[in-house]
Amino acid sequence: MISERSENCVIHNPVLRGFNPDPCMIRVEDTYYIAVSSFEWLPGVRIYKSSNLLEWEHCTDILTDQVDLRGNPKNCSIWAPQLSYDDGYFYLIYTDVKSTKRPFKDAHNYLIRSSQIEGPWSKPIYLNSSGFDPSLFHDTDGRKWLLNQLWDYRIEEGNKSSGIVIQEYDPKQQRLIGDPVKLFDCTPLKKTEAPHIYKYGGYYYLITAEGGTGTGHAVTVARSRELLGPYEVDPLNPMLTSRDDSALPLQCAGHGSLVETADGEWYMAHLCTRPLAGKYAVLGRETALQQVYWDEEGWLRLVGGGNHPRIEVPAPKGTVIQQRQLESLSFKDDFNGPQLKSNWNTLRILANESWCSLQKRAGFLRIYGGESLQSLFNQHLLAIRQTDKSFRAETLLEYDPVTYLQMAGLLLYLNEDNYLYAYISHDEAEGRVLRLMRCAVDEFTLLPDVIKLEAQGAVSLAVEVHGLKAQFSFCTSETAAWEPLGGPEHIGFLSGGFTGNFVGIAAQDMRQFKGSHADFAFFHYEGLADEEVHS
Questions:
Q1: pLDDT at 44 over 70
Q2: Which of 24, 175, 397, 478 is packed most tightly, with the most Cβ within 10 A?
Q3: Are residues 374 and 303 in the same domain?
Q4: Does 1 have pLDDT greater than 70?
Q5: What value does the mean pLDDT take over residues 421-441?
C-alpha cells in the first residue's frame, strides 16, 4: 500500500548499511544517486538510487574491466569516487591507489563518462597523481575543473594531506590544462581531503573532509566569491562532526556531499560508523543523510541545530512511501539463474566462468580452487557486505579434497590479515575433515577442533553473529542436526581500516591452481534484530 507521508515521517540513518563509505550524492531529474568507495572489492564503485531519499536500492556497479587491482595492498585501490552530471552525461572521477606505504602515496586519478548510469562507460582518461579524492566541478560558464587533495611527502610528522588543488580540465582535449593552483590550506583540524564545490547564492562553496576518517572526522565548509579564492572558513567550523561526543550513535561523521531536492530542500550525504561496544566498527563505514539549510549569513547548517549527526532526519516534502525501511536485510542466491546476483563482490579480480561457474552443474555454483586467503592476486572468493549487527548465514557444499592444500567453505572476511574460515579439507590420518582457521591482525591460528566427515556427501555450514560473537556450526546427512564448530569467537578484529566485514564462500587449491572444485547449492544471509552489544 502506498500512502502519503505524515508530518513525522523520517529518514532512518544509516540509509546505506554496512561497508558503503565516502558517499557522493547527486540528483538527476527525479532520481537521486549515491556512489560509494569499493577499495579492493569488485565490481568497483557501487551505485544506489532512490526516488525519495528514504528507500535506496542497488542500481549498478560501474568499474569492471577498466581497472586492474591485482597486487594492490589492503585498504588501497578505488577511493572516494565522485559522481556528477552535466550536458546529458554522467561523469565518474575515481582514484586507483597502488600503495600507501609512507612517506609516499601512489594514487592515480581517472575520468570516465556515460549517457546512462548503467553504462556503457567510456575508457578511462588519466588525469594526475598528485593526491587522492578527485572531484569534477562543472561551472555555469561551461568550464570544468578538477580538484583533489594534495599529498606532500616532505612533511616529516603529522599532516601530509596539505590542502586542496584545482586545475582546469579540457573535455575536447581530454586532459588537464594550465597549471594547478593551491586552492585551500588545512584548518587546524588538518588532513584536508574529499573536496566538492557547489555554486549557490553568488558564492563558490568548498566542502571538504578534515580530521582523518576516524573519530576526529568532520565536514569543513569554506566559501569565496571567486572560484580560485581566497576562501573563508565557516566561523562555526566544523559544520558536521562526532569528534567531541563519543556517546553519539553515529561516529566518524564526515566526507559530505550535497543535493537539492526539486522543492528546494537540501540534504547532505556523509560517512559514519556504528561501532559495537563503542569501539569496533565491524560493519565498516556507512552512509547517512542529514537535512541542511542555508542560514541568513549564507552558511550551511543542520536542520535542528548543532553539528552532530542525527539518527532520524525529516524526509523531503511530499514524500510518498512505497515500503517500510527494513530493520534487517536478507539475501539469498540459489544459483539457478543465468548469472550471479548483483550483491556479490570479489577481491581484486572479477568473477568469471574460468573459476566461478553456474554452467558446469545445474542448480550449483562451482568454484575452482584459487590462491590462499592471503593472496593479493587470485583469490576465488565471493562475498556480500555484513549489513546487520546480528545475522545468520548458511550454505551447503559438496567438496572432495585429497590434500590439506585444498579447502573450501564459509567465511567472515575483512581483509587478507583478518578473517575466520570454516572449511572442508583433507587430513592424512582422518581423511575428509572440517576445520576452523582464524587470522587476526596477521596472526594465524588453526583452531584445534577437527571434525571427521564421511568420505563424500554434502555438508551444510552456518555462522551466526550476535554483535561481537560469532558461532560457526555444521550439519551433515549423518548428524541431521546443527552442531557447533569450535566455540564462540570474538570478532572485534574484523574491524578497522577502510573497509568492513564481508560474509562469503570460497575455495583454494595450493597444490594445483584450479585443480579442484567445490559445488555450492545456495547461500543465504538473514539479518537478525539488533541487540545491545557489549565487549
A1: yes
A2: 24
A3: no
A4: no
A5: 98
* pLDDT at position 341 over 50: yes
CA distances for 173 relative to 91, 143, 301, 380, angstroms: 16, 13, 39, 40
- 83 has which bridge partners? 92
Establish if 534 belongs to a structural domain: no
In a domain, 154, yes or no: yes
Domain match, 351 and 249 both: no
Q: Is 533 part of a structural domain of the chain?
A: no
Last residue of a domain, one of 267, 292, 321: 321
Residues in the chain: 535
Q: Which residues are catalytic?
A: 22, 193
Residue with the three cell numbers 564545490: 197
Answer left, alpha or beta for residue 179, where phi above 0 means left and psi between -120 and 50 means alpha: beta
Identify the domain containing residue 97 by its residue range.
Answer: 3-321
Phi, psi of 326 (to 5 degrees): -80, 145
Give the per-residue pLDDT at 322. 54
The H or E element containing residue 267 is strand 266-273
DSSP state of 530: -
Of 10-19, 189-198, 478-487, the poorest mean pLDDT is in 478-487
**Contact between 197 and 139 (Cβ < 8 Å):** no
Kindly state the average pLDDT of the residues 78-101: 97
Q: Which three cell numbers stand for residue 174?
A: 581530454
Distance from C-alpha of 222 to C-alpha of 233, rounded to nearest angstrom? 4
Helix (H, G, I), strand (E, B), or coil: what is residue 236?
A: coil
- Mean pLDDT, the chain, whole residue set: 95
Q: Please name the residues in contact with 231: beta carbons below 8 A apart, sequence gap of 6 or more.
A: 183, 184, 204, 206, 222, 223, 224
Q: How far apart are CA 262 and CA 158, in angstroms?
A: 43
**Rounded Cα gap, residues 4 and 15, in angstroms:** 20
Average pLDDT over residues 128-157: 96
Per-residue pLDDT of 170-189, as tens digits, reads: 999 999 999 999 999 999 99
Rounded Cα gap, residues 281 and 414, in angstroms: 11
**How distant, in Å, are the alpha carbons of 77, 156, 499 from that of 96?**
5, 25, 15
Give pLDDT tens digits for 347-387: 999 999 999 999 999 999 999 999 999 999 999 999 999 99
CATH label of the domain that carries residue 386? 2.60.120.200
- Tell me how many domains the chain contains: 2
36-to-48, 255, 262, 273 alpha-carbon distances in Å:
9, 11, 23, 14
Instruction: Please determine, for residue 129, whether its predicted confidence score (pLDDT) is greater than 90.
Output: yes
Do 313 and 340 lie in one domain? The reply is no
Write down the pLDDT at residue 535: 61
Q: How far is Cα of residue 240 from the mean position of the Cα atoms in its chain?
A: 21
Query: Contacts for 332-335 with beta carbons within 8 Å, 24 or more apart?
Result: 332/522, 332/523, 332/524, 332/525, 333/365, 333/522, 333/523, 334/363, 334/521, 334/522, 335/363, 335/364, 335/365, 335/520, 335/521, 335/522, 335/523
In a domain, 507, yes or no: yes
Domain boundary among 304, 321, 338: 321
Residues 97 and 169 in one domain: yes
